[in-house]
Amino acid sequence: MDSGIGLLAAAAAVRRLRPDADLVLSSDPDGMPWGPRTPDDVTERALTVARAAAAHRPDALIVACNTASVHALPALRAALEPGLPVVGTVPAIKPAAAGGGRVAIWATPATTGSPYQRRLIADFADGARVTEVPCPGLADAVQWADEAAVARAVAAAAALTPSDVCAVVLGCTHYELVAEHIRAAVAQGRPEGLPPVVLHGSAGAVAAQALRRVGAGPAPAAAPDGGLTVLLSGRESELPAAARTYAEGRLLEAVNPVTPAH
Asked: Is 229 helix (H, G, I), strand (E, B) or coil?
């Protein structure tokens, strides 16, 4: 679940690990973006989206949204667990800092500088020098597959990113869909002799944790016969056109037959 198509990265990661898993993608185009909403509003929207997914009786729910994980995870767990394990998304600050060197965290303006992110830095950055980089407009540009707006937002964030960073944490699930654009922008003007910047998303770790929570191991060679159900504000639908512009969306649609409406 997510406000929009940021969930594609985690869904594709699950699909690569388990081609035989049935996937339910539940998002909220009627209510997005969630970032400017109050915490109570985010929680209400997230509960609605989660319950729409839960009606399909999944084995686990991935909250593939940093905003919802910050504000709504306790409410989602109180409402759905223990019957439905809920897996949240946390920026990959710890593995980014473990690599040594300077770290930048790209996040939405609302998350940048927030007490939540500052706590994560204090707890997991292990003394690394961390620069928080706000990325206004980037999630929306990714959501609508607006290439020009993506390029502008990425360039603006790259200009705020120190040239000697060793790692960039992608602190919004939407950003993982344009990781290569981010990598290229950060590489421009980088001093010679430094190793390439390493990007750290959350999709792979979240997918692996979801499988652990349901007691299932990776089986990437399994038959690619898992179904795909798409819920847009609770309505069964197809993947939005914007989703198909990203490799993750094309992977999900190519590998999975769309599950018919129930």
From this structure: strand
